[in-house]
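Hallway conversation turned thread

IA: we were arguing at lunch whether anyone had actually written out non-specific serine/threonine protein kinase end to end. Turns out nobody had. So, for the record, here is the sequence (647 residues) and right after it the C-alpha cells. Reply here if something looks off.
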Amino acid sequence: MTDDVDTQVSDRLVGRVLDGRYRVGARVAKGGMATVYQALDMRLDRTVALKVMHDGLGDDAQFTRRFVAEARAAAKLSNPNVVAVFDQGDDDGTLFLAMEYVPGRTLRDIIREEAPLSPARALDLLTPVLSALSAAHDAGIVHRDIKPENVLISDKGTVKVADFGLARAVSASGNTATQGLLMGTVSYLAPELVTDGSADARSDVYSAGILLYEMLTGNKPHSGDTPIQVAYAHVHNDVPPPSLEQPGIPPYVDALVQRATARDRDLRPTDARVFSRQVHRVRSALGEGLPDDPELTGDLTVPIQQIRQDSGYDDGYTRGEPIRHETIVVPVEHGRPTGAPAEPPVKTPTPPRRRSRGPIALIVILVLAVGIGTAAWYYGIHRYTTTPSLVGMEPAAAAAAAEKAGLKTSLDNQDFSEDIRKGEVMRTDPAPGDRIRKNGDIGLTVSKGPERYRVPQLVGLQLDAAQQALSPIKLITGQITEQYDETVPQGRVIAISPKFNTVVKPGTAVNFAVSKGKRPIGVPDLTGKPYRDANKDLKKLGFVVTRSTQYDEKVPEGAVISQTPNNGTLFAKDKVALVVSLGPPLVDVPNVKKKTTAEAQQILTGAGFKVTVQTAPFNLGLNIVAAQNPGPGQKVKPGSTIVITVL
C-alpha cells in the first residue's frame, strides 16, 4: 500500500490539467505503452478514463498522425459493448485518449481468480466481446490487440472492449513500439501478425479464440521462455483442444476453439459476426446439456480436416491424445531410394482367373448405403428442421410461430432498421430457411426502429466541447460561422442548426454560429464640442457617458474640455468620461455698502463688473449705497451686473 501511495505522489501527471480540460486523478492501470488515470472532464463535469501514452511516442510524427486517425475511427463506434472514446489530444507532446470510465475489473482479474471457467460461463463472457468486435468489423476496423486486459467488466456486469485502433497506431511508429506491443500481447497474436504484420477481421477472431481457450483452461495455449518462442509457437503449432487440460469439455467446444484459432486464416470464421453465430450454436447445445453433438462438431471441424487432407496436412491432434509427426526424407536415385540394393528382374506371373464377386459386392454396397442413409437421416433430416421466417413479427408472435414449429426463441440483440418497425424482429440466427436442430433456439434481433438522434443543447458551450458532444450520437460538424455578440463570450456557440431537440438521422451536419465576442467600436474625439452634441453622438455608438464639470478660462461654458478615452476602441456599454467647461472661474463681489454712488461705481467697474443704480423707495437724497445684489463676498462670473440701491 505504501509503495502505491509513493507512486501516486511521485507521478508527474497526477494533479496536472491536460489540454486545459482534464484534471488527472489517481492512476488506475499501467501497461506496456500507456498508463490509465481516472480524470475529471472540467468542461462537462464528468469522470473519464484518461489513457496517456508513454513518453517518446508523441515524438514520432507518423505515430501521432496514425494515433489521431485511429482515435477518430474508434470514436465512431456505437455499441454498448465498446468503451466509448470521447476525445484525443496532444498536450505539449503528451498524447492521450479520453474514454468512458468503467468502474469494475478486467477479464484478466476474472481469469486469475476464477479460471478454469465452465464452457457456458466462458461463452457468456465471450459473446459481448464478439458483439463489440462485430460492430468494429462492420465499420472496417480491426482491433489487433484483443487480450484480457482490454476486456472490462463493470460493477453491474456489463462487458466492454477498449483500445480499438490503438494497436494499429502503435505498430506504425517503428521497431521499438512494435517490439513493445509484441512483448505485451504475444500470447494472443495471430500467426499472420507475427510473420508479415498483416491483419484483418480474422486476426481478431484468432485472438478471441485464444481468449476462450484461456478462460476454459486457465492457461495460455503456447508458452516459452521468451516472447519470440511464444510467437514461433503461434506460427508453427496448432492450439490444442482445451479438453486436453479439462477433460469434461464437450467435443463441439473443442472444435469451436480450434476453428477460431486455425493457423491458416482462410479456415477461420470470416469475422466476429460469423464467429458469434457459431458461439450461439455451441451455447445452445450446452444449454441443452448435450455431452456431444456429432453434427455440430462436424460442422465446425470437417471443413478444416477436409482441407488439411486435401493438402496432405495433419492437424496433429486426435481426441484426447496429441499425434507426434516425423518427416523422413528419402533421396531417390535412378528410380529407387539411394542406398537400396538392386533387385533382379522378376517375371510377372499370369494372374489366375478370379471368381465373380458381383453379388457379394452388391450386397455390401446396399448394406453400406442403408447404413449411411440411416445415419444421415438420424443426424440430418431426423434431428434438424428449417428455420421459419419470423422477420416482421413482434417477439411474442415470433415465439408463438416458432413454438408451432417445435422451436424456441430468445432475444439476442437490438439494432436499428430503416425498414422494420420498432419492436419487430429484423433478423434471426439462424436465418430463415437455414437448418436448425429440432427444439433448437432461434436468436431474435429486434428492431429499434430507424436510427435517429436528438440534437443536444450545444448553445453556450465552447466550440470544441460542442463538437465532441456530436461524436457519440453520430452527428458531424457542418458550417461554422463567426459573428459578434454582446452577451456570449468569444469562442462559445451562439446558435445551432438544426435546433436543439430536433430528431435527425446519423451523419446529419450541425451548423454552428460562434461568438467572436463583443464588437469593437471606434471612439471619436469630441473635445471642444458642445456637451449636448458629444453626449448624443457617444450614446448613439452604444457607450455610457459620464459627465463632470470645471471652470476654464479658454473653453466656453458647456463645451467639452477633455474626454477619456478619446481614441482607440471600446465595446458597447463601456464608459466614456467627459469633462464639461463651466466657463472662467468665479470672482468675489466687493463690498460697496455705505460708499457714495460714484465711489461704488468706480470700485465695481474697476473689478470688471457692470453696475446698475436704483433709488430706494424712500430716497433721502444722501447719495449713499444702502444695499447691493449680489451681496458682498459672493462669487459670480466675471462681468456680472451688480445692482446697488442708493438712499
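OS: looked through it. The chain has 17 helices and 33 strands.
IA: good, adding that to the notes. The longest strand covers residues 22-30.
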